[in-house]
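Practice record 12: protein with PRP.
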Amino acid sequence: MSGRLRIAITKGRLLEQSMALFERAGLDCAPVRDPGRRLVHSLPNYPLDAVLAKAPDVITYVEHGVCDLGIVGKDTILEHGHAFYEVLDLNFGACRFALAVKEGFDFYGGYKTRRVATKYPNVTRAFFEQKGMDVSVIKIEGSVELAPLLDLADGIVDIVETGATLKANGLEPVETVARVSARLIVNTASMKLYKEQIVDFIEKCQRGLEQTV
Ligand code: PRP
């Protein structure tokens, strides 16, 4: 590291709120707000380079130490890894993992092994294992709501934010699996090597968060 920290930020929904938080903390985020096709951006008034990446890749970059810090949803953390420090709940990107079924379907009734479709097989397996319930987990890459509609699955485990997608597809949540929000994560070696700089950045984020209250 050449005196600058590198942070991987999840593209999409979390990026805008990450920028808003940084700006409340006094960081100039103009280069990230007008990114063009560039994926790495140096902030002009703070020694931080921002890398824009897909959520699971944020974890890969932080776990491998090529990024010192990351901003990623707890959903991705629960599914993909934990070999880093999770230092701050950023309180945005709040949603939940829920088990959902076709409206009126009795998921826990009957004796047949239930089939559950999800983008998050590890989270789903852990949830049902902890209940001592045997289910068949089917991995789907997106628009998981289709699986029960096509009778591929009896239920889904997916992110629910407003509930609008479930409702529009005749599905209903039956149980919350976990609450989710964006987290600030730190590579374990970076935390030791660049402690002063990282603590300064964490404190800036904390101040930014306090301003939202
Ligand atoms: C997520 C999730 C649901 C939807 C929930 O999908 O998988 O489909 O958002 O949001 P709601 O409760 O506010 O309706 P996303 O838009 O990320 O797309 P994807 O299904 O392709 O991953």
